[in-house]
Amino acid sequence: METTLNAPAGLGSKMMAALSYLGILSLVPFLVNKDNPYVRFHARQGVMLWMWEVLAIYSLVVPGVGAIFFNLSGLLCFAFSVIGLVSVFMGRAWKLPLIGKWAESI
Asked: Along the 106 residues of the chain, how does pLDDT read in single tens digits?
């Protein structure tokens, strides 16, 4: 689902938004660009995605099921990161499934 945010004016905004989907680097646009709604939207989703990745690592403690959850989470997080990067470079603001609603709350 796409929100009604304007596409960024320059390449710098797109690059900051793209950082949002590169793991821990999502904290950079989240902390630095609080005044740009487009970058903030992508940064929130990126932080939620990164938190999911970190929690998936802790699931490896659970024998058997933890490894399955970790592998499934890794695949989904990779797919969501690619979708997020595509939406950034297209100048769109797509809510990612599963984490889009949670990202609005931070």
From this structure: 556 566 665 778 889 999 999 999 999 999 998 888 999 999 999 999 999 999 999 999 999 899 999 999 999 999 999 999 999 999 888 898 888 888 888 8
Measured CA to CA, the distance from residue 29 to residue 75 in angstroms comes to: 24
Cβ proximity of 90 and 103 under 8 Å: no
Question: pTM score > 0.70 for this model?
Answer: yes
Q: Is the dihedral of CA 66, 69, 75, 77 positive or negative?
A: negative
Judged by DSSP in three states, 91 sits in coil
Please tell me what DSSP assigns to residue 96. P
For the stretch 62-79, what's the b/e string if a residue is b when 16 or more beta carbons lie within 10 angstroms of its beta carbon? Answer: eeeeeeeebeebeebbee
